[in-house]
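Database export, one record per block. Field names are fixed; values are copied verbatim from the stored entry.
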Amino acid sequence: MISKWCIELAVAVLLSAVSTLVYAKRLLLEDSGDFVAYAELDTLVRSGHEARMWVLYDYKSKHAYLKWNYWSLRTLAAFDCETKRAQTLYYAYYEGQMGGGELIAGGPLIPERWSGIDTGSLVEKFWQIACSRDSRPNSDPSAPRFPLSPR
């Protein structure tokens, strides 16, 4: 039996293949020596004590993943606002900066791999944004539980 999560993920992958480039409302959270990290605020969805949001890491130099070179990485992050935990649900590597260019690799990660959040970490900054901001209401039970497109 295929779970609802698997169906949602399949729809996300399909839509990402045919979607056009969407410019997200991004909040810069960290500018380190290696990358700049952004929270994509217009992708934030809250349901109960859980929040989900796309996160963008824009690298200052080219990186390698297996046989591909990439300049940016987007991840769909889930946050438990009650227990201060996080997990990555989906990842997407792009050949261009700021999530631009061709999607060169990506896919789902195993759900329910929650990790604690360290105080002062970048993940804590994302958690604070996701769990303290208003987001689009998700009152329609048939609505997807997270933004569907990795673009």
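Remark 1: The first helix runs from residue 4 to 18.
Remark 2: The beta strands are 26-31, 35-40, 45-47, 50-65, 68-80, 85-94, 103-108, 115-116.
End of record.
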